[in-house]
């Protein structure tokens, strides 16, 4: 795992080193050029001076020997030679080699003598018949530059350590808010969803803090919903279980066979109802969990309704109910996840069946709205009191006119499915009685 | 002992009614808060079994309303909400006892009997009156240690009269205690039961107060 601090430090250190190195290279080049220029000027001046001081070659030659001119020894680095134009060494300074420092050509030149490179300036004075060469060793020049550079770089290298320390500390201080947040997060208990409460969050940290807080709040809300759901589920299961247990106790202790039969009948009913409740709870939990949702496909509405009709065959038959589909509905295809759409239709149909009067008619038709289409299930039952139309969507809520073995979860499930399909559930009482439940979907999800 | 069961779940309601009747209670049962209020106003009950989750009202709120209105009938709250907080809230709202679902029928019967008994000032589970020993839980009446065999109605009648000795009960009050709704009561049913009881207990235990009714153990 890389450390943000280390990463920042490395970046800053690399950037600093790069800038410093570039500066050092530039300083080196510049210093070298400047040293070259200044020393070259010195050569020229020295040569000119010597030339002006020198007697003419004849006089020098007349002495009969080459002699060492009393060139001021202000700098041992300089070497001077005076040649007659006809190629005799007339005089030289003490540090100068006996070999010619330069070719005959006047001006600046470089030459290797005895393993040492010399930079030489030569002037010829045809009037006096002499040629003066003044030179210095390049090695010395380079040592000069090196000494200059060392003087500049040594403090920098020592300072680099201090700078590294400063950068390391500064990065640490700069990242302190992050550290605080991570510490807070690490220390808090899993169920703690309170805001982080970072004092004076920086501009960069603020979005992070806000995002974490928003997420915590959402988690807290989800947890509360979940807890409420579990509590409700447990609560809802207690009553049928109590019914089961009560009737079992009665059946065990009564001697009256009619009472026992009645109790056993009630036990059977309770088991039905409890298992339905458990199924609905599982369906709801599955719908809520969002896991393993397959891709929507085009499904024939009539095929699904026919299958459900077979499933409800017994209930439909015993109450003499008819499920009818309009031609439009029978031809319609819906783009949906099959299990989801079946779940929604099953719940709507089951509600209609439970509340239909004997011999009643349940009609399924397609409605057209603005930008949306609806699949409507209409029954001839008592409808839902208008005051309760919203409330019955809630979990475990059964309307006052509710009949049958409903769990109070059906409409919640349908509503959840609707929201997964970007749709909605609409409930309204028809003018001639009976409920119309419509699953409204975006229009592109249904085709005729 | 006549009690009113208020439970919205039809199957459980039927179960409690049948189960408590097996235990000798006279049971009326309703499914909504509105029916419960109407029933409580119309009849005299020894105790109420009230489910907390009713479709038209919260049982606890209903009970608070009754208590504010001066209703003193003992109430046992029946609930699926079983946390300590729920129990405390229930008891603070004026309930005499609290039972979580699912429950044992015997426990329900015992608790109902206990709150009814306490409301009449009897702390002991069994009554000793002269030579008679009345054990409601065991549904036994003994005289000097010998069990007197009684039918369900006879026992209920003895229980009613013995629990408040000296109090005069009118015939309709006694009918009320012995018979739930929808049970056929003949015009001379109470007289028939009294007659049989006198034969079993002795003539002077239950006294007829002319024009008013009956009482046992006149002070």
TrEMBL record, chain A:
PROSITE patterns: HIS_KIN
Transmembrane segments: 152-178
EC top class named in words: transferase
The keyword Glycoprotein is annotated on this UniProt entry: no
SUPFAM superfamilies: ATPase domain of HSP90 chaperone/DNA topoisomerase II/histidine kinase, Homodimeric domain of signal transducing histidine kinase
UniProt entry keywords in alphabetical sequence: ATP-binding, Kinase, Membrane, Nucleotide-binding, Phosphoprotein, Transferase, Transmembrane, Transmembrane helix, Two-component regulatory system
Pfam families referenced in this protein's UniProt entry, alphabetically: 2CSK_N, HATPase_c, HisKA
Domain Histidine kinase stretches: 232-445
Membrane-protein topology: Multi-pass membrane protein
EC number(s) reported in the record: 2.7.13.3
Annotated coiled-coil segments of the chain: none
Swiss-Prot/TrEMBL catalytic activity: ATP + protein L-histidine = ADP + protein N-phospho-L-histidine
GO molecular function: ATP binding; phosphorelay sensor kinase activity
Subcellular location, record wording: Membrane
Keyword ATP-binding: yes
GO CC terms in record: plasma membrane
PANTHER family on file: SENSOR HISTIDINE KINASE YKOH, SENSOR PROTEIN QSEC
Name of the protein described by the UniProt record: histidine kinase
UniProtKB/TrEMBL annotation, chain B:
Positions where 4-aspartylphosphate occurs in the chain: 51
Coiled coil: none
UniProt KW keywords: Cytoplasm, DNA-binding, Phosphoprotein, Transcription, Transcription regulation, Two-component regulatory system
Superkingdom of source: Bacteria
Gene3D superfamilies: 3.40.50.2300, 6.10.250.690, Winged helix-like DNA-binding domain superfamily/Winged helix DNA-binding domain (1.10.10.10)
GO molecular function: phosphorelay response regulator activity; transcription cis-regulatory region binding
One Gene Ontology cellular component: protein-DNA complex
Predominant location: cytoplasm
Chain residues forming the annotated DNA-binding region: 124-218
Domain OmpR/PhoB-type: 124-218
PROSITE patterns: OMPR_PHOB (PS51755), RESPONSE_REGULATORY (PS50110)
Location in the cell: Cytoplasm
The Response regulatory domain, residue ranges: 2-116
Gene Ontology process terms (BP): regulation of DNA-templated transcription
Extent of the signal sequence: none
UniProt-listed Pfam families: Response_reg, Trans_reg_C
Protein name according to UniProt: Response regulator
Organism from which the protein derives: Sphingomonas edaphi
